[in-house]
Amino acid sequence: xxxxxxxxxxxxxxxxxxxxxxxxxxxxxxxxxxxxxxxxxxxxxxxxxxxxxxxxxxxxxxxxxxxxxxxxxxxxxxxxxxxxxxxxxxxxxxxxxxxxxxxxxxxxxxxxxxxxxxxxxxxxxxxxxxxxxxxxxxxxx
Length: 141
Known about the structure:
Layout: H1 3-23, H2 28-35, H3 45-63, H4 85-101, H5 105-111, H6 117-140
């Protein structure tokens, strides 16, 4: 990977992390309050969702029929729009975990420096889960 690609990756990560900080998505209490639509609902995170979807839609639309990125790297977009059992189960597990903990992988990386017990519990579940899924996928092939 050349220096420009490394710089681009670094800046993308920095912007993502700053976005988490500005939006409040790094704070599990804000995320849990966002999910509490019948209680003390904090709808402010909806703006982050809407902007994220809009920016992603522009990116997908722009590069839908291209094979190379602006950095001349291969683009690998999903080639199917099929909803299957694995997608539904994975989405449900992700949603339940996010709803219980208020943490997903991006914010967890931002929070890891805090060494809060919730983040440690998150990684205690995440890391074995990654290896478990990899094991299942290898056996199903």
